[in-house]
Amino acid sequence: MNDARLAAGLPLSQLPPLSQPQPPPPAPTHVPPFPADATVLLLEAAAQCERELDQRIPALDHEPRRLHAAMRHSLFAGGKRLRPALVLAACRACGGTDADCAPAMAAVEAFHTYTLIHDDLPAMDDDDLRRGRPTCHVAFDEATAILAGDALQAFAFAQAAEISAEAVRVLAQAGGSLGVVGGQQDDLDAEGQPVDASPACAQRLERIHRGKTAALIQASCELGALAARARAAQRTALATYGNELGLAFQIQDDVLDTTADSATLGKTAGKDAAQQKLTWVAVYGLDAARAEARRRLDTAIVALNTFGTAAAPLVSLARFVVDRTY
Asked: In this structure, is residue 29 part of a structural domain?
């Protein structure tokens, strides 16, 4: 917990203990009519995000064409677009407009896609299916895939810079050695190691999940807050929500890798067990993993109390994360 919070640059003193939830404030007198249904919100965020990405990413006829084709191959392969949806919902909850957070939506999706391209490489997870289509290195080649990921990462920082310098810092720290990249390193180092329910193994497992997944989901929520010029208390609440939701998301991913098929997931199912990954299911079993995802979901929702009924879209997205089947 502490590593991921520090990675986002938030003093721990600003974060209330999760075991002592604060009572909800009076509901606001007016709540904008934003959709609370997660499916509707995800579709809306996907449409907005893809429009921004299409306008901002160089076109297919722009040199070097092969690089831009590879970037677009992975960017426009579909997917849940959860992270842009979290940016959008967080920005709205803090009183911002959709235009305010458009660059942040593009930033988090481009950054996320870069991590997927690199994660699928032969040197990493060595996967040939992502979002229902051939992975970037399969569709093009390994060198081009590496460069496409590099370019998308740089693009993401440029978009975040349109929000603020603080947005760039949040994204950089979420993606660095205390976040996504560090989580990936821990994940690789844990492959093939003995798995048990010891405190040391449990601590390592949570560090992996909070790094490789929760850090960027937390950053997505914070970028939405920064785009709306939110109050410090709002940003802190969204950071807590995002971090716990990110952990729930990865636990549910562990569950789905065990229970779903490749056609449903849009990626190769059963890879965690085949590669002897350290996962929640491997350590605690399927039922305990499902229960823990629910517990983290509840903790995430409690963090939104400060927003009253304006948090409804964020609550709906959180429930989607744990209830999803893909």
From this structure: no
Which residues on adjacent β-strands are paired with residue 134?
Answer: 129
**Distance, CA of 225 to CA of 191 (rounded, Å):** 36
Tens of pLDDT, residue by residue over 278-320, are 999 999 999 999 999 999 999 999 999 999 999 999 999 999 9
Distance CA 175, CA 213 (A): 10
pLDDT at 19 over 70: no
- Asked if residue 24 belongs to a domain, the reply is no
**295 SS3 class:** helix
CA-closest candidate to residue 186, choices 204, 168, 213 = 204
- Is residue 206 within 8 A of residue 247, CB to CB? The reply is yes
Domain membership of residue 221 (yes or no) is yes
Structure-model confidence comparison of residues 79 and 244, the more confident one: 244
What is the DSSP secondary-structure string of 31-98? -------HHHHHHHHHHHHHHHHHHHSPPTTSSSHHHHHHHHHHHTS----HHHHHHHHHHHHTT--H
Q: Kindly provide the b/e burial profile for residues 153-183, where b requires at least 16 CB atoms within 10 angstroms of the residue's own CB.
A: bebbbebbeebeeebbebbbbbbeebbbbbb
Q: What is the pLDDT of residues 218-272, one digit of tens each?
A: 999 999 999 999 999 999 999 999 999 999 999 999 999 888 777 776 667 677 7
Can you give the CATH number for the domain in which 92 is found?
1.10.600.10
Residue 115 to residue 326: CA distance in whole angstroms: 19
pLDDT of residue 325: 86
Residue 31 placed within a domain? no
> Which neighbouring-strand residues pair with 129?
134
Look up the domain containing 309 and give its range.
2-10+36-321
Higher pLDDT, 88 or 258: 88
SS3 content of the chain, % helix, strand, coil (to 5): 70, 0, 30
What total number of domains does the chain contain? 1
From CA 157, how far away is CA 106, in angstroms rounded? Answer: 10
Quote the CA–CA distance of 113 and 116 in Å, as a whole number.
Answer: 5
